[in-house]
Design goal:
globular, 6 strands, alpha/beta, 261 residues, six-stranded parallel beta sheet, 9 helices, single chain
Amino acid sequence: MTRRAISLLDEDCDALEEAWEVAGLRGGGRVVKVQAPGPITLAAGLELANGHRAITDPGAVRDLAASLAEGVAAHRADLARRLETPVVVQFDEPLLPTALGGRLTGVTSLSPVAPLEEAVAGALIDTCVAAAGADVALHSCAAGIPWELLQRSTIHAVSVDPTTLTAADLDGMAAFVESGRTVILGVVPAAAPERRPSAEEVAGALVAVTDRLGFARSALRDRVGVTPACGLAGATPQWARTAIELAAKAAEAFAQDPDAI
């Protein structure tokens, strides 16, 4: 199974490298992103031989995080070499709030999963960041993002779905931005809506969030990104291209003249 997985990944990388070359992008500096489940979500989703979640075994969690960090770092470095362009990393952590809140289900009601300590979660995340060799973003489209934990971590950026944000989230986001790091707002639908929004509407949705952070728009030019609300795995190829185009145009408009939006 491991050999087959490695072979499939190599085939995908070969195809990407060929497409990159044909498009004339080699050495052009355009940033590529690779992503993987984060250490907490990975440990929460995998089962041990006894059927319990891996997150219930501290040793297994540490081993998983170390293996994840090494594997993602090697994959990122390989793509950077192949494409001759910067490659950044995104770790997806949809189960982070659930794990911290002790809401993961056990094998039975008699074997609950204890809440994950924030210090442990932070150490796992920092292990993966340290190994990556590039800027790292953490993405979560879940409610209850632990902003204080992320503020203490070495994560460079946090990607969120604005529809899940509360007033407390905005305070945490503002503090994260004030520390010199970046927030990435998922204001583009992940699946094709009935009516395609314009780039202007996407930019308007962006500033509707940023204006609540308490900063002048001009101060956020380099601190705010635009992205689809969640992954595009369920989108059609046509909408995936459209979503990326809308995100790029909205981000460009915000970076050039945010006060004009």
